[in-house]
Amino acid sequence: MACRAGCRTCDLDRCGRVGRVTTLDGLIDGIVDTHVQQWNPRRSPRLGRRMSRVQRVVPRFGDRVFSVVSSQAEREYLLTPRLVARAYEPRQYSNDVAAVPAVCGVPIESVVVTDAYTPLDEGEYPPDDHCVAEVDYLLGLPFGTASAPALGAMMVRGNPTLDGFGERLDSQLAVSDRIRGIQINASRHPDPKVRDGCQTDGLLATPAFLRGMEAVAGRGLAAEIFVYSHQLYDVVSVAREYPDTTIIVDHLGCPVGAFGPVGLRTGTTAAARADILRLWRERMTSLAAQPNIVIKLSGLALPVLGYGSEPWGNIGARDTLTHMVGPLVKHVVAHFGSSRVMFGSNFPLDKPNASFEMVVGSLLDVLEPWGEHVLRSVFRETARKAYRIGD
């Protein structure tokens, strides 16, 4: 979408519309969203946990019950139980992205999906039939029909330290040729009120994990890793051990508390927040020295960054989001280059704080001065290469 004068980007207040628009029309056919989660409490093999049961049994009171039965860490991570207690499938996602063409001129072309939100501790693993059933569930979703974008690739959860990890991978790969790698949640935080994604400190640097990664590397798969920013040096260990394996880091390396208080004592002062960002910048610069690491511009509105704890949202305006995440995005692009940076929405987990079009618009505001090549790479080309979409 261009202004009346025909330029590619402008302040459309001057043209009778509100907001800044940078059009991707003519640059790419559509956006690749590299971080979409899909689930259904009634259908996902591994999801029927406490929150979904609460909302299903007492839907009118589920939100109130959530604040009573869940921990502070869970509340701050999710903001509202509606995210995991109700289905989020292609129909819901299509509704969320419907306004994207009005913001940037192109639709969402394809998505990379993951399995259900429910975390998988490293000490447990679903039965083999559930591993396959999760893939079957994702394959059965109506992507590529009606207004839903195409399914570009899938990532499956896994923990290389567990016995039988390689065999489980093989059983999943036999079901679909769209699986491009494993997704590892190794997030651990010293603040006891910040949500942990696993139960082992320094999981990525353990000999068992590094040995188990051979099953990933040997099958030509990627490893997608979610850690908090103080754990980023552990990602370097993985990247060095397996230099020919693509290592994808989720959510900008997630500097918890960078924008405000989180948990018990994280980000509670301006000095503490400045220190969080200083250390994040240093660690991201170290990651950039490893050529097989790719960074995902996802989780930009993730609550644990410190936006606030109100369940109806804490950011408000696109300009606010742009102002807050802009320096982080610029640091990443400057050090990694556009060929190792890609967009991901992290929907629906970011949804309470920001609409989809707000996230896309903010990234456009930040990236537009870098030029058309960067826009093409971040919103489409890097993702297609990293996930081998179209192969």
From TrEMBL:
Alphabetized GO MF terms: hydrolase activity
Organism: Gordonia desulfuricans
Protein name as annotated: Amidohydrolase family protein
Lipid metabolism among keywords: no
Residue ranges constituting the Amidohydrolase-related domain according to the UniProt record: 176-389
Keyword Hydrolase: yes
Residues in the signal sequence: none
Residue ranges of coiled coil: none
Domain of life: Bacteria
Family that this chain belongs to: Belongs to the metallo-dependent hydrolases superfamily.
Pfam families the UniProt entry points to: Amidohydro_2
Entry keyword set: Hydrolase
